[in-house]
Amino acid sequence: MEDHVNRPTQMGARVLISDGWYKFNMSSISKIASKHVTEITVEDFQTLIDLEAEETAILELKADLSAPNGGKSWRKGEKSVQPTERDALAKEIVAFANTRGGRVFVGISESSDNPRRAKQLALPLPRIFDLAVSFQEVVHSERI
Predict the structure, then answer these.
(1) Which of 19, 78, 105, 116 could form a disulfide with 55 if both were Cys (CB 3.0 to 4.6 A apart)?
(2) What is the DSSP pairing of strand 103-106 with strand 59-62?
(3) How confident is the model at residue 20 (pLDDT cuts 50, 70, 90)?
């Protein structure tokens, strides 16, 4: 393995990063991804962005819940999670369950390059506590 790798920075310039620094960043990302959901903070989201965390087999980034164009959605004021939103998120969770597990971070926009990287904070989801309750209800009451 090379001692140094080129990684793009947030500003688009390229910098030389030592292998040790890269491993430190991966360790930081892993620590955030392994936190209990109640311990994750906005600062953790910002750290993922600052480190340009890559999507991996255990890390998925979503700017928002998936909803059809013009269709009903949580963001548009619906009182419950819509089937398309539920199914899209469930698909990611099931993929993690079929492998080593992982974490989906909703609220981080991703880059368009491959692998996709954390780019910036997305618009906050409205009524986040109600959203969590709605997801719990739909998961426990319906077949996905």
Answers:
(1) 116
(2) parallel
(3) very low
